[in-house]
Each structure stands twice: as structure tokens, then as C-alpha cells.
Design goal:
Elements: H1 2-11, H2 16-27, H3 36-47, H4 50-67, H5 75-80, H6 88-97, H7 103-113, H8 118-123, H9 133-160
The structure holds magnesium ion (MG).
């Protein structure tokens, strides 16, 4: 299942490294020794959660169905234009963002406002509907970053005791 999810993302132009880079930028201010490899591992850990896998597949399916013109109006236009008051894309992705606690939600809010890296590319794509995908990327990056934050804190506390 994890491999299917990774392939689905890749088919939509998103690589693990793209998400890891966002997680890195979120977390490096708090942990200057952080490496991109650690972020890649953290993203892969997020992919292991069943609820994350289901959410990613659902979001990508909705983008693709909209792209293929099989979603009925008015929903089709709402998704296609990423109508600002729709919000279901954010709600869905937030379930990924908070798997390691509420700090993931803080990062998600930041990324939702400031689309960075691959999110920016997805958001400005003319060829694809990425209404759900950009939020899903933000959700995964936020969760991976939250996971790193908890690990870093555990490490600090272990060093003290
Ligand atoms: Mg969106």
C-alpha cells in the first residue's frame, strides 16, 4: 500500500524529496543539525500510517476525477477553481498534519498561507487540477516536521538526564 501511495504521488509530479525539503525548511530553525536525509526518513514514516495512505489516495482521486470531467456541477467548478470557501481540501489534509500532535497544524496553517517549493508549482499548474494535492503535500510535510520536532525534543531530554 505504501508503495502505491508513493507511486500515485510521483505520477502527479510529487517526489518524496520535494516533501522532505518542505519539512526541512519548517524544522531547521529549531534544529540546525538537521539533514535532508532525516527529513526523507520522516516523510517515509508518515507514509506508513494507514489513515495517511487513505487520505492521500482520496485526495488524488478527487483531483483526477475533476480533471477527467466526471464530477458533476457545481462541485466540478468549485474544485477546479479551488474556490477559497470550499475548504474540504484543507480539512482532509489536516487529518494528516495532526497525526503527531497539534504542532503539525501550526505548520499546516503556515504552509497554507505561504505555498513553498513543490506546493507553489502544483498551485500554479495549468495542466492539472491539484486542489487537493497541494494541501496533502502540506499535510505530509507538517506531520514529518512535527515528528522530527518530537524526536529532537526527546533527544535533548535524554542528553540532560
Ligand atoms: Mg487546495
Amino acid at each position: 500500500m505504501k508503495e502505491i501511495v508513493i507511486k500515485s504521488l510521483k505520477d502527479r509530479g510529487v517526489k518524496i524529496k520535494d516533501i522532505a525539503k518542505i519539512a526541512y525548511d519548517l524544522q531547521v530553525p529549531y534544529n540546525p543539525d538537521l539533514t535532508l536525509d532525516e527529513c526523507i526518513i520522516s516523510v517515509e514514516k508518515v507514509f506508513e500510517k494507514r489513515e495517511v495512505q487513505y487520505t492521500i489516495l482520496t485526495g488524488i482521486a478527487l483531483d483526477k476525477l475533476t480533471e477527467d470531467g466526471v464530477v458533476e456541477e457545481p462541485l466540478s467548478s468549485i474544485i477546479e477553481t479551488d474556490e477559497p470557501l470550499y475548504g474540504i481540501d484543507e480539512s482532509l489534509a489536516m487529518t494528516i498534519a495532526n497525526i503527531y500532535g497539534t504542532i503539525g497544524i501550526t505548520s499546516f496553517g503556515y504552509l497554507d498561507k505561504n505555498k513553498v517549493g513543490i506546493m507553489e508549482e502544483l498551485d500554479s499548474s495549468k495542466d492539472n487540477v491539484n486542489t487537493f494535492l497541494d494541501d496533502i503535500v502540506a499535510g505530509i510535510a507538517s506531520a514529518a516536521s512535527a515528528r522530527l520536532a518530537h524526536h529532537h525534543r526527546n533527544q535533548e531530554q535524554a542528553d540532560i538526564s
